[in-house]
Predict the structure.
Amino acid sequence: MQVARVSGALLLVLAGCGYQTAGRTLPGGARSVRVELPDPSRIDEPELAPLLASALCRELARAGVAASTLGRADTVLRTRILALAGLRPVVGPSSRVAASDLVLRLELSLERAGRALWRSGLVEVEAIWPVTGADPLRAEASRRAALERLSAEAARRAATLLVSLTP
């Protein structure tokens, strides 16, 4: 049973991070990138780290950059999660909290042999997390969907920043 779970998890990561031939050269002449899993210890959502790494792989692949969370590459993309926080509650018509604005703050760096080739500066994205009431299954689905939206938007911005540096 344990082997099936590990195999399933590995399959999901590989499907989300299609390693492919590089179509673009990055700063420092890099042709492929290993996306390092961010350290989730600074936030209360450890699930965000693999979601973000997968989203970064997908967005970089769409931009023509070979990216994977596995294997070796000449260059590593590191993500430092600075904060994940709830901002303003959104109050619905019955004066109950209907949603919460979430904000994700992170920094990225492209490195080779421990040397920084590029640093992003602060990347900040927001998403709405609809509060779904007492049903724990709906609440969990809503939380996960909000984390996926945050990850996807952060990955789009990071990929856009990174590939904009190449000719």
Q: What stands out?
A: Residues 1-16, 18-22 have pLDDT under 50 and may be disordered. The first strand starts at residue 32 and ends at 35. The beta strands are 32-35, 66-68, 75-91, 97-112, 115-119, 123-130. The chain has one domain: 2-163.
